Amino acid sequence: MSQGSKRDVYVFGTCLIDVLYPDAGMDTVHLLEYFGCQVHFPQDQTCCGQPAFNSGFRREALKVAEIQLALFTEPWPIVVPSGSCASMFRHDYPALFAEHPLATQAKDVASRVVELTAFLLTLTEGYASPPKETDATVVAHTSCSARRGLGQGALALALIRRLSGKPATEPEEAEACCGFGGTFAVKQPELSAAMTASKCHALQATGAAHLVSGDCGCLMSLNGYLEQSGAALKGEHIASFLWRELQNRTARKGVSG
Amino acid sequence: MTAHTSSDAQPGFRERAIQVLASPDLQENFHDAMAFLRQKRASAFADEEHFQRLQAESQRIKQEALSQLPDLLETLEARCTVNGIQVHWAETGAEACDLIRQIIEAHVPHREGQPIRVIKGKSMATEEIGLNTHLEQHGMHCLESDMGEFIVQLAKQSPSHIIMPAIHLRKQEIARLFSEKLPDTPYTEDVDRLIGIGRQVLREQFEKADVGISGVNFAIADTGTLCLLENEGNGRLSTTAPDLHIAVCGIEKVIPRLSDLPPLLSVLTRSATGQAITTYVNLISSPRRLDEKDGPSAVHLVLLDNGRSRMFQDAELQATLRCIRCGACMNHCPVYAKIGGHAYGSVYPGPIGQVIMPQIEGIRAHGEMTEACSLNGACGEVCPVGIPLPDLIREQRERRAQLPEYSRGKEAWIWRLWVLGYRHPQLYRIWSRVVTQLRRLSPRRLRPWSPSRAVPRPARQTLHERMKAHAAQMNTSGKHSR
Ligand code: SF4
Question: Which end of chain A is more exposed for a tag (fewer CB within 10 A), N or C?
Answer without folding.
Answer: N
